[in-house]
Each structure stands twice: as C-alpha cells, then as structure tokens.
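Translate structure to sequence.
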C-alpha cells in the first residue's frame, strides 16, 4: 500500500502537464474578423457614396427651384407693379 501513495507525498508535476492541448483557432478568428471589417468598410463606403449622390441631387434640385422662383418673380414683377400703380376707376 505504501507504494501506491509514494510515501505519502504527491507526485511533483509541471504546469505544461496540466494544460489542455487543443487547436489554436486564434489565427482563424483574426482572419474572420479582418474579413468582416473589410466587408463592413466596403458597405459603409458604398452607403456614403449613395448619401453623397442623394445630397448632391437635392442641392441641384434646390438650386434649380431657387432659380425658377427668381425667374418667375422677376417675370411677374412688372405685371404686379402695373396693377398696383393703376388707379381704380369706377365703372359705369
């Protein structure tokens, strides 16, 4: 019986003997993270370009409408001033 317990003392072991050996997946995780970030970056750049195009179109439409309003107002101004400057005379 004394042989089973080695004289009452536990067997000395090293840290390496207690480590669980398994597959190191850190490289695969890093590669997957890089791929995900690249996809996100590509999608973000596409979305940013779509927003830029949309805002540019809105600005162009605003400029066009402002120009049309200015032209319409200038075209109507002589008519309005003629109507306002003409005295009203009773008919009849």
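Result:
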């Amino acid at each position: 019986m004394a042989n089973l317990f080695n004289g009452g003392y536990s067997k000395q072991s090293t840290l390496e003997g207690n480590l669980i050996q398994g597959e190191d997946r850190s490289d695969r995780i890093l590669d997957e993270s890089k791929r995900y970030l690249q996809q996100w970056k590509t999608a973000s750049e596409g979305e940013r370009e779509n927003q830029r195009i949309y805002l540019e179109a809105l600005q162009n439409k605003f400029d066009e409408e402002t120009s049309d309003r200015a032209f319409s107002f200038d075209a109507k101004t002589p008519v309005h001033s003629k109507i306002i400057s003409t005295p009203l005379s009773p008919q009849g």
